[in-house]
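Colleagues,

Please find the record for the two-part complex below.
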Amino acid sequence: MTPPHPAWLPVPAFRPVGSRRVRVTGTGLLVTTVRDEVAAAVAAHGGALVDDGPADLELVLVGDGGSGEFDASGGFGGSEEFTVARAGTTSVRAGGGAGLLYGFHHVVRLGEAAFAADFAPRRHAPRQPIRMLDHWDNTEVHPFMGQVERGYAGNSIFYADGRVREDLDRVAEYARLLGSIGVNRVGLNNVNVHRAEARLLTDLLPDVVRLADVFRPHGVRVHLSVGFSSPVTLGGLPTADPLDPAVREWWDRATAAVYAAIPDFGGYVVKADSEGRPGPFAYGRDHADGANLLARALAPFGGTVFWRAFVYDHRQDWRDRATDRARAAHDHFAPLDGAFDPNVVLQVKYGPMDFQAREPVSPVIAALPRTRLAVEFQVTQEYTGQQKHVCHLVPQWSEILRFPLDGRTVGDLVDGVVAVSNVGLDRFWTGHPLAQANLFGFGRLAWDDRLAPDAVLDEWIGLTFEDPAARGPLRELMDDSWPTYERYTAPLGVGFMVTPGHHYGPSVDGYEYSPWGTYHFADRDGVGVDRTRATGTGFTGQYPAPWRDVYESPETCPDELLLFFHHVPYGHVLHSGKTVVQHVYDTHFEGVEEVVRMARVWAGLEGRVPDGVFGRVAELLAEQLRCATEWRDQVNTYFFRKSGVPDAHGRTIH
Amino acid sequence: MTPPHPAWLPVPAFRPVGSRRVRVTGTGLLVTTVRDEVAAAVAAHGGALVDDGPADLELVLVGDGGSGEFDASGGFGGSEEFTVARAGTTSVRAGGGAGLLYGFHHVVRLGEAAFAADFAPRRHAPRQPIRMLDHWDNTEVHPFMGQVERGYAGNSIFYADGRVREDLDRVAEYARLLGSIGVNRVGLNNVNVHRAEARLLTDLLPDVVRLADVFRPHGVRVHLSVGFSSPVTLGGLPTADPLDPAVREWWDRATAAVYAAIPDFGGYVVKADSEGRPGPFAYGRDHADGANLLARALAPFGGTVFWRAFVYDHRQDWRDRATDRARAAHDHFAPLDGAFDPNVVLQVKYGPMDFQAREPVSPVIAALPRTRLAVEFQVTQEYTGQQKHVCHLVPQWSEILRFPLDGRTVGDLVDGVVAVSNVGLDRFWTGHPLAQANLFGFGRLAWDDRLAPDAVLDEWIGLTFEDPAARGPLRELMDDSWPTYERYTAPLGVGFMVTPGHHYGPSVDGYEYSPWGTYHFADRDGVGVDRTRATGTGFTGQYPAPWRDVYESPETCPDELLLFFHHVPYGHVLHSGKTVVQHVYDTHFEGVEEVVRMARVWAGLEGRVPDGVFGRVAELLAEQLRCATEWRDQVNTYFFRKSGVPDAHGRTIH
């Protein structure tokens, strides 16, 4: 079998470190990981790992020698910090193994710059203590969703034939990649917990132990998605009522058994009362009752429950204009602020709908000041091209994390960043080789949301591609790929318009008469969803000032969100000076032209990137162009047929 | 296990015959079948099977004693005839076992009327020598299509776990039902021949022998769907080119092996160059080359090849207005008239598209006077409610078989009627108990297309339901159910508007931007497909006079087909005096009201039909009402949003 692509950790990326004389001090599992990294790097590049004597060291990596990389308090933020300096010799000093590992990779990313001019000590600490990737992996292959739900890179790297794989080399490589970018938590199974996967909590627990053992040396704690009705389905109890003492006991016992096997287990991820999953509503309890039940089972061991706020009516009647899915999470959770235990993290999707290319920031993030929150992204490109399209999402996440709410940013308000992973057994990990940049960038932004997205992209390109001449074109191709994707898909924040079920490719009316609450309400006169307080669903009222007013008026609402908040006539003039319908036409023609340019840039990289990468990306760009053209033509035709307004520039609309 | 429902052959239906003194003469397999039927009937109802002496006989059934119920010439129409008379005693005389069987069931259907006033001898012969049901059954369960493709009544009665079932009692019951209505051919497997099912022709042939043995006593010959590329996939040859001698030899050998095992095997059913199936086009050959290849392998044994005319481009570009799927079968096959061997039957779907609730009759039926044709229907309700909706299709088939072309009717022009069966393991056979009427009516119309649909319905009701008070309401509920279904679904012949993939429930734009060639082209001004010679695709030109001119003009085109042939403004006034858009609103409101009435009629039958039937139908009527309401609201809203024209009667359009 071909070995997997090294992603951003190819051998040449270690040359600056590996060609030098390096000392690693300290003990403990993660210090050993750092030592092994250094040993491999110097073996490849002619440097030396120098254990004794003051022998012309060029890099010293000083761990504190403590063994407590995972402390039972559940917070190991302290030990994740490191300080880097250069005064003749470059040094990294950390209070724990995790910090040393992150400091080591910081130096790898700096490259030769780490060994150039002296610089004063600089302390580095993560902005978010929680930096987590969720895997929507099933142990078995689901007939419709495949093995990895919303996965676009082959089957699960964790599971085969209903069990954890025998050979976990691939998982170890993955854990190393995550450790190198500071990801410190991973959810091992699909939030939609099916019957087979439920058993990971009980009889398959020894399998989970094996995964935990593989992730641990890289500073990554494992978590399980659990079904809220497990006391019934696994335990045989008559109820899963969170206030029932037998239910509490069941969770306490099950959780204690997990910690007996995995002392540094991270906790549970729960999708409850959501899209058909069981939850506390069935027992007349609220989500604080539900979350606290699990939180109290986890608390003695320092575990956390990640409780998803993605609760809405997925059997809505499209005729019912009063119900607004966008309101649901706030309606359900804002009243519960203060009711959650301290080891509950409410996991909130970044937008009020579902991982669209463009949504406003979820108002839930400003609505629960007394609750720990994590914002949830999709590294997996469910609605953003499914790893067939280049769509570099780091700028989107950056924009969201920097979004101001009540004088702070989203990044300030949350305790963590969680995302759905995009990896699978594919030899490039992510299907599209360039989608590795999203995985890398997620880790980097989770560590520090103030990093500039283009700087993160440059880091990734610099590590991944050896030929300096490839870097400019790669950046050109990738850095605006999210706005490009937005241009040729659903316009002005209206969202969806995807093919029902698999969510790839256009279907303008695909969800228009569905029970999913995702409508655009286009008619012969106009399009968009009236979510104002004045005449609509009142969703704008869930925002604090100034957004509640900025979004309320079409005059102040940003163009890119206009149709999310307002139903306007096709002739409505945007801030850009264009009418809505002309904007639709223009952006769709432009989007396709940009994909043509991307393909041209890529063609120029032949010979400058490895052949396997070149060929795969070239093929996928052809598919992206085909699909973008389909989006352009379907959306333009749809709005031309509805509005009757011809394109101002006379281009072909079918 | 609950025994299956007796359908139209319950014990009470045999009382008129079974309470009398009956003689059966003649020998042979089918005469034995008749004798066994009589024996069972008299045992149940107190009559007698009288073998010797002139003992007050009330019914004599006279077979000719020949053993040749299946003659090797491939035509056994002669032996299917019978003559029935009454002169004191009722008599049935037949030239063969099949005729005797049909005559016996004729008397069963007559009931007491067969034993009332005398009547002169009347000869009965089938109008169509070919009366065939195709089963789209797979030996294995297909992940998307299930075991029975487009089946709505559970898994296959033939197959389990990749083989023919051990227990064939259910198949024997089915064969008896088919024999009783004169069906004389059955296709055993899906026309989409997958890898597993291909082996029915070779290593699973002993399994097919077992099925043939079960069908034979009821006068039903078995057929296999075969893949055109079988010489490659099964035979390991490098080609399936129909002109290649090794390919010919392979088919000759395979076919000889089938006939060695099943001397009365009926022949092959072939879907070639259609929706991705292999065919002669791959070798630069035409469909006559392809069909004749198989015909010549079958000819020495009296076998027939059923070659489907369902050939079209299923990867059409929706932007391409010049390509018209409706034209495809005629374009492909009309030029080949005269080129087919005499044992080829070209199997033509009744309409140019695909089994819609309303289509014009296929012009192919008038276009190949020197070719044997069969018209193909769907008893399975793929596009007509999937056996969740009451939709009595016999009036549709009657209308088509009576449709005049070149001074004759469709029934005159064809040599056979073929349909896709609607049965499965469901205890009512057909999912919806009232869908049994379609299976019954298919056999009856295939025997005699001049029968009145309401008379056929009355026959079925009379046989199936014992309580005479149930019969009027049942007729009221069922006889207009096809026009009702048409009213609440796609309007004025435009077709489709179904959910892609499973084809159940509305999706007005579901196929509008698809590669399937099934579009309605609705915009803000109008709707419909211009298939005229003057300004459209020219499809009208495929019809003989007068239809080529009747359909060409919106002035003469029948309302119910207007949007199939013309793109018209919403304000276009129909012959009914209504505008197109008001017609859409009115029919959709009416259709739902009719379903409400149907449910009310059914509610009145509680206690008059068996409880199991009552409950099942009541449940399904609730689903039909839900689905019809969804159709009404989606279609009305869609056209209101497009046209902006309000309902003249101010009813709610969402």
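The two ends of chain B are 47 Å apart (CA to CA).

Comments are welcome before we finalize the supplementary table.
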